[in-house]
Amino acid sequence: MKELTKLTIAEARAKLGAKEFTSIELTDAYLAAIDAANPALNAYVAVTHDKARQMAKASDARLAKGKGGALEGIPLGIKDLFATEGVHTQAASHILDGFKPRYESTVTANLWADGAVMLGKLNMDEFAMGSSNETSYYGPVKNPWRARNSNMDLVPGGSSGGSAAAVSAWLCAGATATDTGGSIRQPAAFTGTVGIKPTYGRCSRWGTVAFASSLDQAGPIARDVRDAAIMLRSMASVDPKDTTSVDRPVPDYEAALGGSVKGMRIGIPKEYRVEGMPDEIEALWQKGIAWLKDAGAEIVDISLPHTKYALPAYYIVAPAEASSNLARYDGVRYGLRVPGRDIVEMYEKSRAAGFGREVKRRVMIGTYVLSAGYYDAYYVQAQKVRTLIKRDFENVFSDGIDAILTPATPSAAFGIADEDMNADPVKMYLNDVFTVTVNMAGLPGIAVPAGLDQRGLPLALQLIGKPFEEDTLFRTAHAIEQAAGRFQPAKWW
Amino acid sequence: MSVSIDTVKRVARLARIAVDDGDAERMSGELNAILGFVEQLNEVDVSGVEPMTSVIPMEMRKRRDEVTDGGKAADIVANAPATEENFFLVPKVVE
To answer: CA of A62: how far to CAs of A24, A104, A360, A386, A442, in Å?
Structure first.
């Protein structure tokens, strides 16, 4: 039999149901894998051995009675952004030093209600601000992938870098993640995993540490499309505690898999052919087009004229919302406190010591664009451009396009401590050039592995769908997965 | 538009983040790079365009105005750096 940790969620679910092994055995296999790999990969910031075993034992009892939930006994990793009762929750920031919430986020509560087992909390960029997992207080995560004949450490992408690395390196069966500008899809692309950002409002944001409230959405990172569909069904819900969560039934996404894409109209936006894009990315895109064409889809050239303005508009809207959301970290109610002469000095010193460089930079930008005299010029202008970005998508969907196919990222994973990226924050921001439009418009987007570059590193395609048509994305992504095959790193850690 | 070191210090004060002269100088470079990048938004014709308020058309859900939760003072202060009898402690604010 295959190693327990190499099974997909769907495979483990079937074998747990058939009593081929227990959840305790599966959980112990994952805990052993984490203990062995984490010193090298740094994917977990906290491992909850005892809690995992307790939960697995309870799952085994339910399975024995034939009363298992949809994820009964499946060991998952949880991004450090989700509040987990009594367990390390710090958004990978020093400012939440020692924070252990007295409550559970709605998304994780949904997973536990369906029987999932928590292995621990996953590393990430501090407050989900970053594209390389290098802004974490706990240090960078290493990508389980390396280029052929190279021992250079690569980033796993970000901000959900721990989630993507842990799924790719078989350190959890699946992971929760969040996406504000590409933070699920870009790390999934860099690690050969599948990540979906659902429609804004599909998952409750309650109990998830807020970054930019009008853009943040939770979603899964998983080994394949089916596993992502299984996880999203459990994560999604309407929640009275989040008024932006949407009251509509959660479909059985897994049922969409295997459906035909024949006759679907797939849009190819010319604006995603950006200057300086490597030939390999263009070639990958053409391969994706050919696969969907072969499967019977109709390929249509479309235009989304405001695409190039999405990233600059994002770098006004997201920091503005972040500066407001992060005002709560003041050294009074939780986390780090650095004493000062008076209360203002205490605030200033606590925040100076508690926030990392990237977080400070974004809080400063946000404060600046919201300050008197600049609000209209920056913030209102960006929100108007956002209306135009969303209108571009509405226009193509009303012209009969069912889904849009683009590359997921402009490159494969890059090196840790890349000099170009470190010297210029805007260069790092350009990682999200293909993903950020989706957040600005509130749409669902999925990244699905589609091939390897010349150095043997994974590359992915992105599919963008209409609001609440995640099932269409799963169906189409599954067709791509069937054609492209699956990709796994060679173990070095 | 270029952000001076004095402006950085003023914004840092508004954001309640202590910065020294070295921080302020570095940040002014970074902030100018980002503000230079977002400048291109000015080319977009937005006449007659409403600013986005919500990506998904929805009416704010409301509930009855009644007490549904409470009695959790100990939970609320549990993570605070300094407390006394379920109050947050802060340095003296009023002489």
So the answer is: 13, 22, 47, 48, 38
Predicted confidence at residue A428, as pLDDT, reads 87
Residue A390 annotated as catalytic? no
Of A335, A371, A387, the CB nearest to B52: A387
Q: What is the pTM of this model?
A: 0.97
Give ipTM to 2 decimals.
0.96
In this predicted structure, what is the pLDDT of residue A275?
83
**pLDDT digits over A439-448, tens only?**
999 999 999 9
Q: Which parts of chain A register pLDDT below 50?
A: none
A245 has catalytic annotation: no
3 state SS of B65: coil
Map residue B87 onto helix, strand or coil: strand
Nearest residue on chain B to A90, alpha-carbon basis: B79
Architecture per CATH, A4-263: Alpha-Beta Complex (3.90)
Instruction: Give the H or E element holding residue B38.
Output: helix B21-38
Answer whether B18 sits within 8 Å of A349, measured CB to CB: yes
Which residues of chain A from 382 to 411 reach within 8 Å of chain B, CB to CB?
A: 382-388, 390
* Inter-chain CB proximity B55 and A367 less than 8 Å: no
Chain A residues with CB under 8 Å of B76 CB are: 102, 333
Domain limits, chain B: 5-42
**Residue A183 annotated as catalytic:** yes
pLDDT of B1 higher than 60: no
Q: Which residue among the candidates A59, A93, A105, A159 is catalytic per the annotation?
A: A159
CA distance B64 to chain A (A): 12
**CA of A443 vs chain B CAs: smallest distance (Å):** 8
Whats the size of chain B, residue-wise? Answer: 95
Q: Measure CA A324 to chain center.
A: 23
pLDDT in tens, B32-88: 999 999 999 999 999 999 999 999 888 878 889 999 999 999 999 999 999 999 999
Q: Rounded CA gap, A67 and A214, in Å?
A: 38
**Residue B38 CA: distances (Å) to CA of A135, A144, A315, A319:** 22, 34, 7, 12
Residue A427: how many CB atoms within 10 A of its CB?
14
